[in-house]
Every structure is written in C-alpha cells, then in structure tokens.
Specification:
The structure is a single chain. With 438 residues, the chain is of the alpha/beta class. Helices cover 37% and strands 19% of the residues. The protein is built from 13 helices and 16 strands. α2 (87-98) runs antiparallel to α3 (108-126), α5 (175-195) packs across α6 (215-228) and α7 runs parallel beside α8 (292-302). Residues 427-431 and 434-438 have low confidence and may be disordered.
Length: 438
C-alpha cells in the first residue's frame, strides 16, 4: 500500500525561543514524507501532556534528546507497516505504547511531533492541501483571528500579571480584512508605547513588551490603540488570556505588579468591573485550573455576553470539556495539539466543544516553530477561531499568511466565520464606560 509507513525518524530542532524541541519525519512507501514539529508552552496546565525534557545543565535543562531517542528507539518500530491514512489507528498505537495518562513515558513532545508528521504525510499522499484533507469533504470557513497586542505573564517575565491582551476584529468581513485591522491596531499600540517612552521591544509571542503601572493600564492603552486605529464602535474588541493559575497560590490570587491579593469572589468582582469598563468579548482562564467553583460563578455571571475560555482548565481534553459543560463551566475551549499529545485526541476535544455548542479556538504556543498546521486545523476542522500570538515574528506571521493563502484558494470554503463562531453576541464600545471617557 502506497500510504504505508516505512520510516520514522526523530531529530532535535529549535523553537522560537531558541530552545530545543522535537521534529519527526515520516516516510511512506511511495516516497511521500511528512514532518511534524512540537511547540512548547511557557505557562502549562498541570493536567496536560508532559513536555519531556532532559534536565541537567545542558541548554538550561530544556534539551530533548531523551524524547528524540524515544521516537527512534521505541515509537518507530511500532509504526512501521501502519497506514498513515488511519490517523486514529496510528494515534491509538502511540497512546498504547506510552501507557501513561499524560504521555510521561514517551513525552507529549515526542508523540505530537510524530502524530503531526503522520498527518502531514497522509495529506501529501492524498494529493490534498492539509486543511482540505482534514475537512473530509465537509464545508469549512476561515477562522476569526485573535491577535496579541501586549504580551504579559510568563510570556514577558511576569512584567504584568495578565498573560495576553489581544484583539478580535469583530467588524471584519474576510480573513484578509481581519488581519489588516489587527495590523493597524498593532501599529497604533506601538506608536502609543513610543509616545509614552515605554516601547521596550516584544515579548515571546511578538506582542509589545508591557511597561505599565498596573494591569488595568494595559487595558486602557489597548482601548486607546483600538480607537487610534479607527477600529472603535465594535470593529475590534478585546480578548484577555488571564492565565490565572500563574498567580494563584494557597487559595488567593496575587497580582505581583500591584501588590494586591484577592479571594476568588473579590478577584471575579475585579474582572466584572473590567468587562463593564472596556470592550471585552473574551476571557480565557479567568480563574486557576482547579478553581471549579470560581469558573462556574464567572460563567454564570457573564457567559451570556462574554466568551469564557478554558485553557489550563481544560487542557484540550475531551472528557474535561464534557465534564465542564455539564457543570456550567466555560462556553469555549482552547485547542492546543501538544496539550493532548496526538492529533486524534486534539480533534476529539474540539468535537466535544462543538457538541456542547461552545466556541472552539485552535491555538499556538509561546514556543513555536515554522509549522503552519494549526492554521490548517482551524480551517479544516471548522474551529471558527484561531489564536497564533501577535502580528510580528516569522513563526507567527507564517501562520497568519497561510490563512490568507487558504482564503485565496477558495475551493470548498464557505467564506469567513467572523463572529459566528463566538458563542456570545458581539459587544461594541457603546455599552462600556470606555466609550464615554475613562
């Protein structure tokens, strides 16, 4: 059979932070090859697949030679002779060979790189663009972009506590227009930072390096940047990745920048105030990954008008998505392939989100590679939203530009999802204090 796997080879490559990561190349009987590359997160959920690192002194403990050996010595013999077109079957073998609930034996970085390499090889063997191969003859649309303007949290040395300040171009009618709106806002934010004499470079994902006296000041400047770019009145809205697990300790939320400490109720009240004051449409991980009561309370309070996204809270796990939906927690799930460890498990989490009528957001990690497969996943699986990072750095722009190429191809696409994939009604600046002057 032409799509039979005849070779699997793991290698060490380097990610966007200059750290080692795993690359796997799969070769099929017809000579077709596929290459998968594992990204890596800076803030990681306790329940996601293990990113296997060597430890010790070499490369700061981040080397991946153990994971690479696992690919070559353990994984490869089990995959030879399998059909690359049977992604689920291949991934089941990976799960079985690992034998742990969190990929800690082989390493989630080893399994996801292998799984994605098989996916790439299968699409190439089928003679199809990856997105079309993943779509399986169903209609799909281009996703709504979420673009980071200011980086924070673990992406910027904890300079501010909130991890990502992003925009969603809610008023756009195409993927191309959406990116153009984000480009204007990114530029306007840079100009504002320069005027403040606080433009100090960019964070891990390309967003402007934060230099603010408080977390809320970043919201204020971002709102000003949206207005300066001519994108007020609902043309662009704010999305926040709080990553609250990063500053949750001993039952309290501790903002290092401001020296403030909150119990859950008080912390939620602070977020509610921000939502009333600024044009916020989406909030990711507003509470810590195991604060179920807090997530339920937040969703109940604002879930009808704000997208409540689970990242560390759900870790791209179908069972956790189903459980959260039943418990009244979240109305959207962030989809990160390396959190799950295989392509099939990633898709299962996305389908669980669809089943719950949630928003689904395919996402990059802070340590990225040049692989553009998440753009194809967002399109082919009809996710509706795509979160890549900022509008700078080639590992980010490669993914945004790939979306433009897919949009231009036109075939079998039903257009641009816009805000239809967001499980709440878009809010404009008109119903926030920001529009009336802060």
């Amino acid at each position: 059979m032409q799509s039979t796997i005849v070779a699997v080879a793991g290698h060490r490559i380097w990610d966007s932070r200059g750290r080692p990561t795993v690359e796997v190349e799969v070769t099929l009987a017809d000579g077709t090859r596929g290459r998968g590359m594992a990204p890596a997160g800076a803030s990681r959920g306790a329940h996601e697949a293990v990113d296997l690192r060597d430890g010790g002194m070499r490369h700061g403990g981040f080397d991946v030679m153990h994971a690479v050996r696992n690919v070559n010595d353990i994984v490869a013999p089990h995959l030879l002779g399998l059909d690359a077109l049977d992604q689920h079957g291949v991934d089941q073998v990976l799960v079985a060979v690992d034998g742990t609930p969190n990929k800690s034996r082989l390493g989630g970085n080893a399994t996801i790189a292998t799984s994605m390499a098989v996916m790439h090889a299968a699409a190439a063997a089928s003679g199809l663009p990856l997105w079309k191969y993943l779509a399986e003859d169903t209609q799909c649309s281009l996703p709504m972009p979420e673009v980071q303007i200011f980086g924070g949290g673990a992406h910027a040395g904890q300079r501010v506590d909130i991890q990502d300040f992003l925009v969603m171009p809610a008023g756009s009618g195409s993927f191309d227009e959406a990116l153009a709106i984000c480009a204007e806002i990114y530029r306007a934010a840079g100009e504002l930072m320069a005027q403040r004499k606080s433009r100090c470079g960019v964070a891990d994902e390309g967003g402007w390096w934060p230099d603010f006296a408080s977390n809320e000041e970043a919201l204020s400047v971002l709102t000003d940047a949206i207005e300066r770019a001519g994108c007020g009145g609902g043309k662009a809205l704010i999305s926040l990745d709080i990553a609250a697990s990063e500053f949750y300790r001993d039952g309290l939320y501790r903002l290092g920048l401001e020296g403030k400490t909150f119990e859950t109720g008080a912390w939620l009240a602070e977020l509610y105030r921000w939502i009333e004051r600024y044009p916020i449409i989406s909030v990711e991980d507003p509470v810590a990954e195991d604060d179920v009561a807090g997530m339920r309370a937040f969703t109940a309070a604002v879930g009808s008008r704000v997208q409540v996204v689970g990242d560390d809270f759900l870790v791209t796990d179908a069972a956790r998505v189903a459980h959260a939906a039943a418990a009244g927690c979240c109305n959207a799930v962030l989809i990160k392939p390396n959190q799950a460890g295989t392509v099939s498990e990633t898709r299962a989490a996305l389908l669980a989100g669809h089943k719950a009528a949630w928003g689904t957001i395919v996402s990059a990690r802070s340590g990225e590679t040049e692989d553009v497969c998440i753009t194809h996943m967002a399109v082919g699986w009809n996710a509706g939203q795509l979160k890549v990072g900022s509008f700078a750095r080639s590992e980010r722009m490669a993914k945004w530009n790939e979306g433009l190429r897919i949009e231009r191809s036109g075939a079998a696409l039903s257009g641009f999802a816009g805000m239809t994939g967001v499980p709440v009604s878009a809010r404009g600046n008109g119903d926030t204090e920001a529009s009336a002057g802060r």
